[in-house]
Amino acid sequence: YVAAIRAADLGREVTLIEENERLGGVCLTEGCIPSKTIIHAVELMDEIRAAKKMGITASDLKLDPRALRQWTESVVDGLTRGVAGLLSKRGVNVIHGRAVFDGPRSLRIEGAEVSGVDFKHCIIATGSRINEIPPAYDLPVWSSADALCIPSVPGSLLVVGGGYIGLEMGTAYAGLGSSVTMVEFFPRLLMGADPDLVKVVVRQAEKRFSSIQVDSKVVGIEKTTAGFAVTVEREGARTTGEFEQVLVAVGRRPNTDRLGLEKAGVMVDAAGIITVDEQTRTTASGIHAIGDVTPGPMLAHKASREGKVAAEVISGEPSAFDNRAIPAVVFTDPEISWVGLTEREAAEQGREVTVGRFPLAALGRARTVGRTDGFVKVISEPGSGLILGAAMVGLRASELIAEATLAIEMGATLEDLLVTIHPHPTMSEAMMEAAEAAAGSPVHISASRG
Q1: Is the dihedral of CA 213, 214, 216, 222 positive or negative?
Q2: Active site residue 424
Q3: Active-site residue, selected from the candidate residues 121, 422, 424, 444
Q4: In terms of DSSP bridges, do strands 15-18 and 93-96 run parallel, antiparallel, or are they unpaired?
Q5: Which position among 16, 86, 91, 339 has the lowest Cβ density within 10 Å, counted as fewest Cβ atoms?
């Protein structure tokens, strides 16, 4: 919808074809918006409980799943109606149905009053869908979309997958009252993030979850009268446990099959990813692609930026997706965020970097709110001090990462960050403090700790 709005603002005649009844895409309707609404409710309960050490006591604290479900739905509904209103004001023609290419300049539309459309330019923005695991086929296990509807709060919940979706949902349901067990195929959780960041989150997850099993694989799921019997294999040994519900969160795949891309001349790789250039052009003239169907992280903010680029290129504007940094956020407790070069990537590339770390335990604002778990680190180029990356784990890490993203986009150096006056006392000071540590001039920690 972002691409449609931008194209309309640039004077294009725009038709948007959407298979689902509600507009907004996966993030808005069954992804990040409902998940963060639920996570916020759980965090709010945790904060109220934690306030006891500050002298604040709340009695009879409980959560009503039905009311939370209604609140979450109202948030999503309000935003989807807002999107529909924006499109209407721009004069975008919205067709609800499934579009399939039947030629290089035409689409047939299934399930709509309009049988098809011809186009001069087309933007493919069909997103991605949840992966499944073979043992779960045809069984009433939950996907992340199911879990976000809060159909129930199971007494025991097995989460299959220790990526960001699994961890966010596991944390949410543990907060709602479920006994959560997590099974992850890889040696550690959140394989995409630096281990030192993940370690802080795992410490908290271990307090909330009943069990975390890494290097493990689900090899069998059977429906029982009480729920599900799940067999897990680790190092050749198999164990079977009973769970009231199973949540499968093992990643996503691009929605590029069953689109008739071969009839349009659009090339995809073995994983179903569409090849694009910096102007979002595919291998077929006049056809662009954005979002989860293209290379790179499957993130809504990346897709929105690509959507604007595609609309501008189609309209003859000098635009390109040449962004140097795409921030990533995991809404666990505490939150994790990172952008640019990571320490893990630098090590894999054999690249020398300077790393400055600042613990939140030394930050005034973190102490005032009683949330000192975590740290901020800034990764820079030796000599020049050019900022290459940043990462953080702690309270409001999702909000703080934007400053580091701007710094990388602007080609900022450590000097730029550390001389920029940050308001005191705030969480944002941690970024300045980490830059000072990287530059070898920390004030609030010893130089050896930086």
Answers
A1: positive
A2: yes
A3: 424
A4: parallel
A5: 91
